[in-house]
Amino acid sequence: MPTGDLVLAMFGSGGDGVVTMGEMMAQAGAKDGLDVMRVEAYGPQIRGGESSCTVRLSSQPIYTQGDQVEVVVVFNWQDFLRFKGELVVAQDAVVLYEESDTTPLEDVGLSLGEDARWIPVPFIALAKEAAGTTLAKNIVTLGILSEAFGVPQALIEKAITHKFSKKKAAVLEANLKGYKAGIEWGVGIKDRVADYYLEYEPGEPRLLMSGNEASAVGALHAGCRFFAGYPITPSSEVLHFLSEWMPKVGGSIIQTEDELAAMGAIIGGSFAGVKSMTATSGPGLALMTEMLGLASMAEIPVVIIDVQRGGPSTGLPTKSEQSDLWQALWGSHGDAPRVVLAPADVEDCFHATVAAFNIAEESQMPVIVLSDQFIAQRRETMSPLTLRHKVVDRVRPTDEELAEGNYQRYAYTESGISPMTWPGIKNGQYQTNGLEHTEDGRPTSMHLVHEKMNQKRYEKLRDVRSRYSYVRKYGAEKADVGILCWGSCKGPVKEAVLRAEAKGHKVSAFVPQVLYPFPQAEFEEYLKTVKNVVVVEISYSAQFYKYLKTFLDMPKDTFVFKRSGGKNLTVSEVEEKIERVLELSAVRKEVLV
User: Fold this and answer.
1) What is the spatial distance between Cα 456 and Cα 410, in angstroms, rounded to a whole number?
2) Do residue 423 and residue 523 come from a single domain?
């Protein structure tokens, strides 16, 4: 029987065009109204090396990249082997592999079932014969996939035409010939793979966007007009996107010599009155910690996007992990308050970034948006109508506050927020630096002033907590199993909860977007509604669980599922934990009876 949900994965070397293949399939699916998620993976090399791309196409809403790959395309088995531990291939999968690759199939380590179909394909020969170059083997493959598996054929042809339209006519013609050759070859295997043919009703086109792009668009929407940053995987796309679009809205962008300089630059930009932002990853955030303290002490609004990757040190530059949590929460010398937000999907990257600017401008403090590689570099579909979010601008001091001789930049207020000026405002000049200071900004080392100023700076968090404690809840109102997670774990957890509910289990999940200030009241209310608690996170040291314990009286028998990054969380992992907890809960209940 045909399917309404298909997961494909392609593997090859740099230059094989597997990412281009995935992008074209994802765009075609989105334009045909399908729900799409595209995930890329690379080796750690700066240039070249292996790459893979997984695309999920579905007629129903999806929240993850799919646990099992159903169609596998392999140009080179040695490249595939470098990713083997990161994915699960379905037992009855279709494996299309280059027929000229002499690697024995028993050496590739794929223990598939008897229903699996191993199909050698002359990708290279077809490309050379039809297009005159082996470089077109990815285009040939697109033809095979569109014919044999129902990937939108006409839309992919349009994508090919668009991609090569600026090149010589002969180049476009050659690639279209390669595409048609793939279609013709795909006819021959269509009956063998009919159970994986994608059937659906075309719908309205959908927007396809990555998390990094959504963060960049959110920044522009929020009014950011200055960006400074140093390129670092996996956040570099924010810099790339804004380098093109920031000048178009009258803004400025600087590629700095390092992350320390980037942080200093955006503090300067914000001090001058312009909404300012940087983007980095874990190693870069480590370099920014001293300047984070300066922004906190001087009460200057800045936004920092940290796209987490595997650590420590340079770690896993191209793989996801949730191990920057403690650094984002506490990374600085002294008592340096900041707000930490955690987007949970691509669309959320837009909203979290706008909210970060709103909070920063209102509260005059640094705000960290804690994304990760799985969210930031994947692409998924959404409605463009969802990209709306209220924007808050910096409030200019009143005439009374700016009356000659009256202005006090760091005046004590009930909320902790003082009137902020910027250069050029009459009577608004003030002294500022990283030293502790009096209300008018003059340096001081007096204990009483330091105590009062610390209280003032932290008081601002109370206002943030009361207005921005946004959380998501899924599943049963009263549950036998309650899952606590954050960030990119949301997708697999949500899908696992929905599957558990379909089986008749009472399961729920709680996902905070605001990590700090900690939404304690919301957590405590949720914990009252569940019998067993499971914490899910991608951190070997269980950073999230230990963070929860600093604020909450967590049950002694809390179940903790934690592991290192390098492999994205799957629905099946969460499902297994749910089933295990339900089994143990049933045994415990029998013992008590």
Assistant:
1) 9
2) no
Mean pLDDT over 176-193 rounds to 97
CATH assignment at residue 232: 3.40.50.970
More confident residue, 216 or 88: 216
* pLDDT value for 469: 86
Question: How far is CA 65 from its chain centroid?
Answer: 13
For 563, the token pair is 């592991």
Query: Which helix or strand (DSSP H or E) is residue 581 part of?
Result: helix 571-592
The structure tokens listed for 215 are: 């963060």
Cα separation of 134 and 191, whole Å?
A: 27
The predicted-structure confidence for 121-154, as pLDDT tens digits, reads as follows: 999 999 999 999 999 999 999 999 999 999 999 9
Q: Domain boundary at 205, 223, 254, which? A: 205
32 shares its domain with 130: yes
Q: What is the pLDDT of residues 14-48, one digit of tens each?
A: 788 999 999 999 999 999 999 999 998 877 655 55
Q: Please report where in the chains the tokens 């140093």 appear, as a residue.
A: 230
Domain count for the chain:
4
CA distance 320 to 367: 21
Q: 311 is written with which tokens?
A: 């650590």
Residue found under tokens 């090919």 = 160
Retrieve residue 550's tokens.
């600093």
Q: Which domain holds residue 415?
A: 395-468
Q: Within this chain, do residues 446 and 567 fall inside the same structural domain, yes or no?
A: no
| Tokens found for residue 323 | 């191990």
Distance between CA atoms of 219 and 266, rounded to whole angstroms?
13
One domain for residues 317 and 368: yes
DSSP 8-class letter at 73: E
HSE-CB at 10 with a 13 A cutoff on CA atoms is 30
Burial class (CB in 10 A: 0-12, 13-18, 19+), 484: buried
Digit-coded pLDDT (tens) for 337-367:
999 999 999 999 999 999 999 999 999 999 9
